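Re: the 220-residue chain
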Amino acid sequence: MGKQSLGIDPQVVDYVAEEIKGVSNLKVQICIVIGGGNIFRGLEASSKGMERTSADYMGMLATVINSLALQSALELRGILTRVQSSIEMREIAEPFIQRKAIRHLEKGRVVIFAGGTGNPYFTTDTAASLRAMEIKADVIMKATKVDGVYDCDPMKNKNAVMFKKISYIDVLTKNLKVMDATAISLCRDNSLPIIVFNMQKKGNIRRVICGEKIGTYVGE
């Protein structure tokens, strides 16, 4: 969305694509899960009276639009990309098939998972955790607008303290807004670490992948 009030800012899409391009030569396998809040927020719409299931499906469709925008930007940079959607729409995306996703990764393609989990009442955080388990990912990299996980909202409290490392259970008991509780529980049950970092600082994706100690590590 960038500085716009709604929709897709081409400059932001280009920035994200360049950041991904910067790590595509590191021989790592990259999957991406994108939200759709810049177009439509299902939870927000349901709180204003829209039926929750319909609102959530509309939010899932918004993630598909974002996924296609990023795919286009990546392929303009010569990066082979596939979009797999949990909601079938053959003309614009592949259906999600675990073995096919893994095969794309083995061939060096970037895979974008669109449509959330395909089910209402689940967030894209949960979709990221679920897909990470299915493709046997090593880590979830949670890209945000802040430097990591704080004890309170750093946008509202300048004295907020950032954690360098925190356990899954502490995230849940302290009700820290890292990812939703379902996503955190899924990662905890499968011992999948999460690194929360600032996406708006150029080169941060590469730094995380190369092992630099930035952001917050969520794990055992």
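Strands lie at 31-33, 81-85, 94-95, 110-114, 140-144, 149-150, 162-163, 165-167, 194-198, 216-219.
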